[in-house]
Amino acid sequence: SRKLKEAVVSTQSTGTMDATPSFSWDNEFWELFHPGYREPPVTNPDLIATIYPKSKIIISLRDPIKRMQSAYQFFCAYHVYNCDTPVTPEKFHGLVVEAIDSFNKCRTTNTVRGCVYSTESHQLATHLYASIYSVYLKDWLAVFPRDQIYVVQFEEHIENQAHSFLKLCDFLEIERFDEVDLTEYIKTHLVRNSLKDSKRIPYMLPETISLLEGFFAPFLGQLVEMLGDEKWSWGRPTTSDDRL
């Protein structure tokens, strides 16, 4: 553990890191700076690529439906969103229907990308828009070479964190940690979810899952095509949509 800490300190001098998850998708105020535009002409990837063109980008993606459930639970528990508590599968389903209806209404007058970024179609409670990964990833790939972007699957990282961290070291071109020390360090520094059971949805309604799988199918199909691996569907249905 001591050796690992020393290694961490020594590698920190080689660069600067930022771990703000929302940087990958959040462009909330773009409409204030570009009134009248249907889509944002400039996004976070554009800004970062202009200022730090040699940046290495790490993007962690989770099953989009499970991510939505987690976001709903988090925002309600910590009062980011004024929830009708207690949270229930039925209330979550109602919010999902509302979010999808809002997004589909936007699509009648705007592009898919425009609706993904449009704050008018955003619903904070479920964060539906933030789970449409392919649209955001396409913007990152438009300004950064593929070898500067590392996309990791959240579920695979959790399953074998030591292996995942070693692969990240390779991507960042820094010296690998000793695997034994790294494994021990991870065991003693586990971060556990402190959300109480009373703040969680005990299960998701089958109709909610079916509705969300239908909504995400074309976006997951696009993501699978972009990253060249079926694992990015998380075992859920995919379809092809030329309009994306």
What string, H for helix and E for strand, traces the elements in order? HHHEHHHHEHHHH
Beta strand count: 2
Number of helices: 11
**Structural class by helix and strand composition:** mainly alpha
Low-confidence stretches: none
Give the fraction of residues assigned to helices: 40-55%
Gap between N and C termini, in Å? 47 Å
Gyration radius, in Å: 19 Å
Strand sequence of the main sheet, in spatial order?
1-2
Q: How would you characterize the overall build of this protein?
A:
The structure is a single chain. This protein has 244 residues and is mainly alpha-helical. It has helices at residues 2-12, 30-33, 44-51, 64-77, 89-107, 112-117, 133-143, 154-159, 161-172, 179-188, 206-227, and strands at 57-61, 149-153. It has a two-stranded parallel ribbon with strand order 1-2. The mean pLDDT is 89.
